[in-house]
């Protein structure tokens, strides 16, 4: 009867019929039922998640980028390196003015060593890889 309720396959049913120990027979059926219950629970959870999340939100999201802590320690006179572009590469300079926080970004005025020009550059969390503190050894 328990094999029928658990919808056991023929192999499990045969083992149940061959087993004379009622406790062991019940353990076989419980293992089968537990496995199926876990699959059903996982399927329900998956369906619930996909129903609650729109198609756009189903894309992989890692989380919101954040400005690193060291960036908030930047002040006038701090040495920084900024990746300008592929042609110029890493450019070293110093912060000419104290940074200004506007929304989710810092505006940093940098005077570059190579030509002495000063540019106000946004320090965006999404582009934090363009900035490095101080004079990094591997920079040109």
Describe this structure in words.
The protein is an alpha+beta fold. It has helices at residues 2-5, 10-18, 22-52; strands at 79-83, 90-95, 100-102, 105-112, 118-124, 131-133. Strands 1, 2, 3, 4, 5 and 6 form a 6-stranded antiparallel sheet that branches. Helix 2 packs antiparallel against helix 3 (22-52).
Quick tags:
3 helices; 140 residues; alpha+beta
Summarize the structure.
This protein is of the alpha+beta class and about 140 residues long. The chain is about 30% helix and about 25% strand.
Topology readout:
Layout: H1 2-5, H2 10-18, H3 22-52, E1 79-83, E2 90-95, E3 100-102, E4 105-112, E5 118-124, E6 131-133
Antiparallel strand pairs: 1-2, 1-6, 2-4, 3-4, 4-5
Helix pairs in contact: 2-3
Which blocks of ≥5 consecutive residues have pLDDT under 50? none
Gyration radius from CA atoms, angstroms: 31 Å
Largest sheet: 6 strands, antiparallel
Distance between the termini: 78 Å
Q: Structural class of the helices, strands and pairings? A: alpha+beta
Q: How many alpha or pi helices?
A: 3
Run of helices and strands? HHHEEEEEE
Principal-axes geometry comes out as rod-shaped
Strand content: 15-25%
Helix content: 25-40%
Please give the oligomerization state of what you see: single chain
Q: Return the average pLDDT rounded to an integer.
A: 79
> Using DSSP, what is the number of strands?
6
